[in-house]
């Protein structure tokens, strides 16, 4: 055992003598532990390089000192800037492993031992810790929703409320066509009532010829009222306000029936009845 240790120290001193001291310190030595770098990592954004063993130790110290803090930030040992992430320098690691195999092997064993002692040891990085179960719950929660959506897609299209919606759509279409026809009848035939009214309030009594009322103000009022009633009935039917439709539809229908009854032959009938009423009694 003594001979092996003597040979190992001799080999190490021989290896150190092969490389100039300045180059060795600058390129292959970690400024924290003052030993050769094992798995060297470059820090972002500062760009300084340290061995992985020292970086993990810095991370553990930062976690212990910031247990009550909202964020865990590890500063760089040289410039004290916060470390955002660490990147392994593979080429430099291969160079150190090939030049100093015995020392690299010892340092690598120390790294493995530290990882075994601290299972949750990580490299420094900028992070804001959240509860441990929150990401798991957020990733697992959408799964039942997807299953529920697939079950809903397998249902038949006409199920429950869909049948009632189709029936309501048919009723609305029929109501709109019916109200449209009623409105046309109302506009076309309501002039008979207006003519009869003009007949009664004429200047010279009922013997005057009824004036043409298409361009008068009263005709426009009748058309405007009938139009507003029709639009209100259509709107109430479209918004499924059936009780409003039932209240408005009889008013539109009554205007149509009155105009149809008093126009044409109806006007002649009322005119004759008025003439008979105005005759002198015997």
Secondary structure blueprint with pairings:
Blueprint: H1 2-18, H2 21-28, E1 40-44, E2 49-51, H3 52-65, E3 85-88, H4 90-99, H5 101-117, H6 134-140, H7 142-153, H8 161-189, H9 191-200, H10 217-238, H11 242-262, H12 265-278
Antiparallel strand pairs: 1-2, 1-3
Helix pairs in contact: 4-5, 8-10, 8-11, 9-11, 9-12, 10-11
General description of the model:
The protein folds into 2 domains: 14-117, Zinc/RING finger domain, C3HC4 (zinc finger) (Herpes Virus-1); 161-278, no CATH class. It contains 12 helices and 3 strands. It has helices at residues 2-18, 21-28, 52-65, 90-99, 101-117, 134-140, 142-153, 161-189, 191-200, 217-238, 242-262, 265-278, and strands at residues 40-44, 49-51, 85-88. Strand 1 (40-44) and strand 2 form a beta hairpin. The relative contact order is 0.07. The model is unreliable at 1-21, 128-140, 145-151 and 203-215 (pLDDT under 50).
pLDDT under 50 segments (min length 5)?
1-21, 128-140, 145-151, 203-215
What is the domain tally? 2
Largest β sheet strand count, sense and barrel closure: 3 strands, antiparallel
> Order of helices and strands, N to C?
HHEEHEHHHHHHHHH
What is the radius of gyration computed over CA atoms, rounded to a whole number of angstroms? 49 Å
Estimate the mean pLDDT confidence: 64
How far apart the termini lie comes to 159 Å
Which percent range describes the beta-strand content?
A: under 5%
Helix content: 55-70%
The number of helical segments is 12
- What is the number of beta strands? 3
Based on Cα principal axes, name the global outline.
rod-shaped
Q: Structural class of the secondary elements?
A: mainly alpha
């Amino acid at each position: 055992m003594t001979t092996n240790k003597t040979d190992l120290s001799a080999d190490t001193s021989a290896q150190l003598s092969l490389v100039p001291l300045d180059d060795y310190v600058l390129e292959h030595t970690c400024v924290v532990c003052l030993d050769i770098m094992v798995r060297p990592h470059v820090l972002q954004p500062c760009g300084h390089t340290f061995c992985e063993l020292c970086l993990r130790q810095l991370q553990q110290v930062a976690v212990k000192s910031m247990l009550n803090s909202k964020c865990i930030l590890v500063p760089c040992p040289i410039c004290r800037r916060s470390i955002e992430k660490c990147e392994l320098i593979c080429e430099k690691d291969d160079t150190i492993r090939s030049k100093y195999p015995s020392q690299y092997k010892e340092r690598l064993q120390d790294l493995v031992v530290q990882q075994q002692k601290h299972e949750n040891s990580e490299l420094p990085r900028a992070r804001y810790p959240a509860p441990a179960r929150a990401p798991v719950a957020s990733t697992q929660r959408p799964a039942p929703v997807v299953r529920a959506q697939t079950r809903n897609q397998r249902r038949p299209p006409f199920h429950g409320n869909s049948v009632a919606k189709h029936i309501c759509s048919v009723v609305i279409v029929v109501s709109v066509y019916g109200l449209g026809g009623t409105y046309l009848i109302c506009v076309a035939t309501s002039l008979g009532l207006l003519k009869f009214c003009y007949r009664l309030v004429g200047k010279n009594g009922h013997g005057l010829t009824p004036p043409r009322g298409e361009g008068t103000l009263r005709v426009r009022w009748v058309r405007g009222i009938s139009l507003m009633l029709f639009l209100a009935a259509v709107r109430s039917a479209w918004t499924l306000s059936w009780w409003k439709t039932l209240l408005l539809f009889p008013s539109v229908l009554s205007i149509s029936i009155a105009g149809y009854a008093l126009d044409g032959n109806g006007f002649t009938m009322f005119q004759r009845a008025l003439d008979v009423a105005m005759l002198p009694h015997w």
